[in-house]
Amino acid sequence: MPILKSDFTATLPFKNGHFNTMYRPLFMKNTCAYHRKRITTWDNDFIDLDCSFVGSKTLVLLIHGLEGSAASNYMVATVNLLNANQIDTVCFNLRSCSGEDNLRLETYHSGKTEDVDFVVKHLLKNYNHENLIIVGFSLGGNLTLKYLGEYQEKLSSKIKGGIAVSVPIDMGTAELEMDKLKNKIYVELFFKTMKNKILEKAYKFPAFNLNKEKLFKATKFKHLEELYTIPVFGFKSPEDYWQKASAKPYIPKIDRPTLLINAKDDSFLSPACFPRKEALQSNHFYLEMPNYGGHCGFISSFKPKENQWLENRILKFIENKIRI
Question: Which pLDDT does position 247 carry in this prediction?
């Protein structure tokens, strides 16, 4: 599809990508009265779904980013706007992210679409919605795009499309961006919870031979992948993981309306995370690249009523392109 021209605008200081990235989690406060549904997985684990229903025929499944949850501001804000427009929502808390550690050594990773498929099938089987749309943020956006392409031949006709926001679709080059000094503070914030979770897993599963000294010294995502993701999920190397988990190769297979919104000033993203060629060659995949917005930010100003561009953009795409 043609690359979409974005109408997102920002005032100072929101034209600074780092300011926009940090403002939402630090200063945007939203709440939602979720109803939690715990489902048992095929591998004797559990996944927590946070539901907010308003009696709609359309259901949006939202997937958060790295170390996020249903309580992340971008999730709550989107749920509230969709509910206000008579659309039901379910927030998928990835394993270990719901406030309670999951039961298995394995948690989640950027390409673990079998969990997405399990949740989607559960929703289709147990609820009577006519339309299901998947919306993912950052890592959750990678899962969304990869799932829609990877499972394209198996998808129910009730799955009408998807939207992905601030997505590192090419993990190898995106991790090189994250290694740069400009992203040091973000990596440190992620590592605070990620290292603690890995330590807890090592305590619960003594057979998992964790090198704790290397864990304490880890400064790059690659280090954590070598210590946890690669051995636990059976990848050959970080490079093997990046190749198999990245959504970018699956984008050409997407066969229903899908939007990717990646801001040009998102410090997490490499040039390879802006799939212009894929968008131009697809009949279903749309790409929007605002000049500003940071990573999962898209805040326009200090005025609260002007700070729903992202949520409204998601709603507009659902109404105009997916056409529920």
Answer: 98
Instruction: Write out the two tokens for 294.
Output: 């940071």
Percent of the chain with pLDDT over 90: 96
Q: Looking at residue 323, what is its pLDDT? A: 82
In 304-324, which positions are buried (b, 16+ CB within 10 angstroms) versus exposed (e)? Answer: eeebbbbbebbbebbeebbeb
Check: CB of residue 74 under 8 Å from CB of residue 135: no
Token pair 């297979």 is at which residue? 253
How far, in Å, CA of 149 to CA of 191, rounded?
30
Structure tokens at 212: 């704790």
Amino acid identity at 54: V
> Phi/psi class of residue 174: alpha, beta or left (left: φ > 0; alpha: ψ in -120 to 50)?
alpha
Task: Give mean pLDDT, residues 55-79.
Answer: 98
> What are 245-270's pLDDT values in tens digits?
999 999 999 999 999 999 999 999 99
Among 157, 32, 151, 138, CA closest to 94: 138
Q: Cis ω on the peptide bond leading into residue 2 (within 30° of 0)?
A: no
Rounded distance between C-alpha atoms, residue 153 and residue 156, angstroms: 9
State the amino acid at position 124 in one-letter form: L
Tokens of 100: 């309670």
Mind listing the domains of the chain with CATH numbers?
A: 17-170+247-322 (3.40.50.1820), 172-245 (no CATH)
